[in-house]
Amino acid sequence: MESRIDRIKKQLHSQKYKLTPQREATVRVLLENEKDHLSAEDVYLLVKEKAPEIGLATVYRTLELLTELKVVDKINFGDGVSRYDLRREGAEHFHHHLVCIECGAVDEIQEDLLGDVEQVVERDWHFIIKDHRLTFHGICYRCQNKKEETKD
Question: Which CATH class is domain 91-152?
């Protein structure tokens, strides 16, 4: 974790920002909960456990800065709540998500599946793509398995 924090610190420094103690506390929470898709309020509650003096506004500002610098991605799964997801190191694009419409689970696809689609869009629509997001909504394998078990 420390090496990742150090790389994020360098990323901020390259953009003329410092990794203040408040920002570091927020980054640590995101790293410790990397598999989750935390809302700003979730991040705030976890940061508050580590550093009670940090306010909600500071966490919001930090998350917005980290989003702007592409350290994290701000996502919405259609429920009206913005969530924050650490961008995989070295990733050119945002990763894809599978959202279960039954249990609400969110699984990630790290593999970039849209390279060919991007080429067609850029060529045929003369559109320069900077990033893309893909979210599939359906029924996860866990819910499918539960349905199969109840049939037996």
Answer: alpha beta
The ranges assigned to domains in the chain are 1-90, 91-152
DSSP letter at 70 equals T
Q: Return the biggest CA–CA distance within the chain.
A: 61
Match domain 1-90 to its CATH number in 1.10.10.10, 3.40.190.10, 2.40.110.10, 2.60.120.260.
Answer: 1.10.10.10
pLDDT tens over the chain, length 152 residues: 788 899 999 999 999 999 999 999 999 999 999 888 899 999 999 999 999 999 999 999 999 999 999 899 898 887 888 999 888 766 666 778 898 999 988 888 878 788 888 899 999 999 998 878 788 889 999 999 988 888 76
CA angle 5, 11, 12 (to 5 degrees): 90
Q: What is the pTM of this model?
A: 0.73
Local structure of residue 125 (DSSP, 8 states) = H
Residue 52 is which amino acid? P
Six-digit token string for 68: 């702007």
